[in-house]
Amino acid sequence: MKILGIDLGTTNSAIAVSAPDEPARSIGIAQVVGPGEIAERPTLPSFLLLPSEHEVAPAQLQLPWSGPMRYCVGTFARERGAELPHRLVSSAKSWLCNPSIDRTAQVLPFRGAQRELEAEMADGERVSPVNASARYLAHLRAAWDDANPDEPADEQEVLVTVPASFDPVARELTVVAAREAGFEKITLLEEPQAAFYAYLAARGEAWRKDLKPGDVVLVCDVGGGTTDFSLIEVRDDEGNLTLERIAVGDHILLGGDNMDLALSAIVQRELGKPLDAMQQRALVHACRRAKEHLLSADAPASVPVSILGRGSKLIGGTIKAEVTRAQAEALLVDGFFPKVGADAKAERRRAIGLREMGLPYAHDPAVTRHLAEFIGRFGKMPTAVLFNGGVMKAEQLRGRVMELLRTWAGRDVRVLGGVDLDLAVALGAAHYGAVRRGKGIRIRGGTARSYYIGIESAMPAIPGFAPPVKALCVAPQGLEEGSTVELPDDELGLIIGEMAAFRFFAAATRKEDGAGALIDADAEGVVELDPVEKQVPGDADHKPGDLVPVRLEAHVTEVGTLELWCVARDGKGRWKLEYSVRERE
Amino acid sequence: MHPWLAFLCFFRLLFGRKLPPEAAKYLPEDALPKKQLAEAPPAIVEKPVEKPKVGGTASQRDGALSLLALLQREGRFVDFVRDSVDGASDADIGAAAREVHRGCKKVLDQILTFEPVMPGAEEEKVSVPKGFDPAEVRLIGEAKGEPPYRGTLRHHGWRVVDARLPTLAEGIDRTVIAPAEVEL
Question: Terminus-to-terminus CA distance in chain A, angstroms?
Answer without folding.
Answer: 46
